[in-house]
Amino acid sequence: MNHEIRPPARYAVIFTSQRTATGHAEYAAMAERMEHLARLMPGFVDVESVRGNDGLGITISYWTDLAAIKAWRDEAEHREAQMRGRSEWYRWYHLRICEIASEVKFSPES
Amino acid sequence: MNHEIRPPARYAVIFTSQRTATGHAEYAAMAERMEHLARLMPGFVDVESVRGNDGLGITISYWTDLAAIKAWRDEAEHREAQMRGRSEWYRWYHLRICEIASEVKFSPES
Q: Which segments constitute the ABM domain (chains A, B) (predicted)?
């Protein structure tokens, strides 16, 4: 996370996935490219991503509005990545689009 | 995840956190105990949790309604864990309560 001024996130897209055992280098390159592209999309606010050693991953992207999420879903390179995800990279995934109702931040240094 | 029949989740609590470098064994025991307790709460649906090697973690719990989330927040042992979290275990955290608007599942085996 960086600390530049950004618009508040009103929506979160929770992407929980289980990787297959194949294509590590290609997958890593795709993931980096997708994060780069997502950051360029209007309405993008932030992304948080963790994958454990067992291949279970959670990526959450934050957006200002639903139209921005739809535009990102339909972005051409992203659509290509989604197709390869289903055919090669993910054993399963679960995607949830959520509206943020409330939030609490804790940071003793700030 | 298991596949017993459960009520649909309407809310997700996204808990993103950065661990401090201390208390690994105690923290692991607490995390296991909290997951056990959460599963006993009325309105609990599921939990997904991943922590990377850099100490960044995302835990998402799923609930049927906001009252269930509030009851879990106020549960006595959980409150104690929250206090120790702020004083010892987390460098920072960000908690977001979200309403699930839509979802998509992918699983070629099912």
A: 28-82
- Residues B71 and B41: their CA atoms lie apart, in Å, by 8
Taking any CB pair shorter than 8 Å as contact, residues of chain B touching chain A are: 11-12, 14, 16, 48, 50-53, 56-58, 60, 66, 86, 90-110
What CATH class is the domain B11-99? alpha beta
> Which of A81, A77, A80, A78 lies closest to A27, judged by CA?
A81
Residue A61 and residue B54 in contact, taking contact as beta carbons nearer than 8 Å:
no
H or E segment to which residue B66 belongs: helix B66-74
The pTM score is: 0.92
Q: Are residues A94 and B103, on separate chains, in Cβ contact within 8 Å?
A: yes
Domain ranges of chain B: 11-99
pLDDT tens figures, B23-44: 999 999 999 999 999 999 999 9
The DSSP bridge pattern shows strands B44-51 and B56-63 to be antiparallel
Kindly report the nearest CA distance between residue A40 and chain B, in angstroms.
23
Res A98: pLDDT = 98
For residues A92 and B106, the answer to whether their CB atoms sit within 8 Å is: yes
Residues 6+ apart with CB under 8 A from A67: A43
